[in-house]
């Protein structure tokens, strides 16, 4: 019995070892295939040399016309396919440039030009050019955009490859090395050169097409183009006509004092008359500051990065619209490194550009402070008349009398009540897939009744989520004119 058990255990161990070996061989299968190709090319070279030796031997032994013809052909093949490729290619230079009519945006396209120059002509050979674009963001799926083009150069030396990448996605793009492959017509000798041509491109965030936030609290709907022109300077900053109107209100007003109000705004005269503590406010204070709070944790979006990209584009849209209306904006993000802030002052274009670049490079984090808890902390420090727009992932409203309360929804309700007490306008924008059913607006309306908080679900279209960058077109020219024979064009 023990011998049989040991024998079965030994057979099982051998079977397990065989499976492990097969798994190990599965990984380098591509390299093995490439090596086999190289060995087959070397074998073809050896056969050509062997046939050349046999033809020379036959020519020495007989010296007939057939022997002379065979020896001449094999000698020409040996020189043209085995020797000439190693001397034909001299110095090689590659320059890359990205043609931008403006800035690159999510969903747009990018045109790249590669200028290739040989120090001497390479006739009777074919040339292949390969360029790749790699997303820098670690959250990407790692797919690389590869542009490939092959052509016959003839007697030309300078070439220009132009290709277009469509369906760009937000983030920073890194260009890798350019591979130039040169080979003979029979494919016996193929040489590959890697030219270091580093470069980067930044794709700015953009909300899904057709979205607008003019109906949100704190924004003026239907602003005309005349209101967006700077017409006055206050405090050294250019403001719009609408912002000027909001600043020049009908005069100061009063409201009930709340903890945190500045003592300089307390109406002491009203207090002396027995009216209690009152705080002076004005229309300028009612215009207030806009705070945009963006959720950046990956778990909140269920691992769907395009839901996150859509919210990043919406944050950029909100900030741009608020700045055009003359508001100061504070961008807040939660991540593994804690809360980060980016201030955008009205009329300061440099601040707006810095915020847009930060959003373009923003990556989600695996851990971070939960957004519902962060909302209540932010609301507690805001002044009356300010507005807070939270960009978060989809969450359920829950039930007020539920036996298992949902912490996220409870924090939202608490933050909404706190915002109502402090006179803060709170807006919660939720990103969700277009294929999913919309949450019950009645549930949120019931739980947030009387708080003035607005909860709005924003679906992300399937076309936006499935957007993948790819090479759409490529062509090779010589001095601005088509002077080469195209062999093939491929992209991946």
TrEMBL record:
Domain DUF58 span(s) in chain numbering: 253-333
Annotated keywords: Membrane, Transmembrane, Transmembrane helix
Keyword Transmembrane: yes
Source domain of life: Bacteria
Keyword Cell inner membrane among UniProt keywords: no
InterPro entries membership: DUF58
Protein name as annotated: DUF58 domain-containing protein
């Amino acid at each position: 019995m023990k011998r049989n058990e040991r024998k079965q255990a030994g057979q099982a161990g051998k079977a397990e070892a065989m499976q492990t070996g097969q798994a190990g061989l599965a990984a380098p299968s591509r390299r093995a295939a490439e090596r086999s190709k190289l060995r087959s090319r070397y074998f073809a070279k050896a056969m050509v040399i062997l046939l050349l030796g046999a033809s020379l031997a036959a020519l020495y032994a007989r010296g007939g016309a057939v022997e002379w013809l065979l020896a001449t052909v094999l000698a020409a093949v040996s020189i043209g396919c085995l020797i000439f490729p190693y001397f034909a290619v001299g110095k090689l230079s590659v320059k890359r440039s990205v043609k931008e009519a403006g800035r690159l945006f999510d969903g747009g396209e990018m045109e790249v030009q590669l200028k290739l120059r040989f120090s001497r002509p390479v006739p009777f050979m074919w040339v292949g050019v390969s360029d790749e674009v790699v997303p820098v963001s670690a959250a990407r799926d790692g797919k690389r955009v590869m542009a490939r083009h092959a052509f016959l150069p003839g007697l030309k030396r300078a070439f220009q490859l132009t290709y277009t990448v469509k369906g760009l996605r937000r983030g920073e793009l890194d260009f890798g090395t350019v591979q130039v492959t040169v080979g003979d017509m029979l494919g016996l000798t193929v040489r590959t050169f890697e030219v270091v041509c580093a470069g980067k491109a930044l794709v700015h965030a953009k909300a899904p097409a057709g979205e607008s936030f003019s109906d949100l609290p704190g924004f003026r709907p239907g602003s005309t183009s005349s209101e967006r022109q700077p017409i006055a300077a206050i405090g050294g900053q250019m403001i719009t006509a609408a912002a000027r109107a909001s600043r020049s209100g009908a005069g100061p007003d009063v409201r009930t004092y709340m903890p945190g109000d500045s003592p300089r705004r307390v109406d002491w005269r009203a207090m002396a008359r027995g009216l209690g503590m009152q705080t002076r406010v004005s229309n300028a204070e009612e215009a207030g500051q806009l705070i945009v709070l963006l959720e950046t944790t990956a778990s909140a979006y269920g691992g769907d990065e395009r839901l996150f990209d859509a919210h990043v584009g919406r944050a950029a849209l909100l900030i741009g619209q608020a700045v055009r209306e003359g508001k100061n904006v504070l961008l807040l993000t939660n991540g593994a490194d804690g809360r980060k802030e980016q201030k955008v002052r009205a009329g300061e274009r440099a601040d707006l550009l810095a915020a847009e670049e930060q959003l373009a490079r923003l990556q989600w984090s695996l851990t971070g402070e939960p957004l519902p808890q962060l909302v209540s902390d932010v609301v507690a420090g805001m002044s009356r008349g300010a507005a807070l727009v939270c960009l978060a992932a989809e969450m359920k409203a829950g039930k007020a009398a539920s036996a298992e309360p949902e912490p996220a929804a409870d924090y939202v309700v608490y933050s909404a009540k706190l915002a109502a007490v402090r006179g803060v306008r709170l807006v919660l924008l939720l990103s969700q897939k277009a294929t999913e059913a919309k949450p019950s607006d009645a549930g949120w309306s019931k739980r947030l009744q009387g708080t003035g908080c607005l909860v709005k679900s924003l679906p992300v279209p399937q076309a936006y989520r499935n957007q993948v960058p790819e090479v759409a077109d490529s062509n090779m020219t010589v001095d601005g004119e088509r002077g080469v024979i195209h062999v093939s064009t491929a992209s991946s």
